[in-house]
DNA sequence: TGATACTAGGGTAATTCGGGTA
DNA sequence: AGTGTCCGAATTACCCTAGTAT
């Protein structure tokens, strides 16, 4: 029942940027350097996996 | 729409949109530009082949 | 037959892309 | 080395009303 009308496993560049408090362009650079492995819309825009982003967030708070 | 429990070889615009984290209208644009080849219901609504959509999803996460 | 959710279509904002720069 | 910003072009998101799907 309603298996995800509001939830998505993918995040937009702006959403990732808000989580890290950086500019979306910086998120793009992380992707280009291989630190993130996003998929692409058919128009070429990046979509990031929530699971991957949250894992990196957790790791970054461990080592502080 | 019961998209979580019932399997179908055809996907609605909303289902495709959720997979790519885009607006359903964007999926329509992909169809109009030839990036997707949907069927049409007798009333004119588009239905997308799951096989085609999943193939494009897989390709989008490859590195190139 | 009615009720509700979704889609088509068109228009107009808002994001994102890529490159270059500070 | 890592970010933030400016730019133009391209892509995507949100607004509406009428018609379709279930």
From TrEMBL, chains A, B:
Chain ranges of the HTH merR-type domain: 10-64
Top-level taxon of origin: Bacteria
InterPro entries from the UniProt entry: BldC-like, DNA-bd_dom_put_sf, HTH_17, MerR-type_HTH_dom, SinI_DNA-bd
Pfam family, any one: HTH_17
Classification via Gene3D superfamilies: 1.10.1660.10
Signal peptide bounds: none
Full protein name: BldC family transcriptional regulator
Organism: Brachybacterium equifaecis
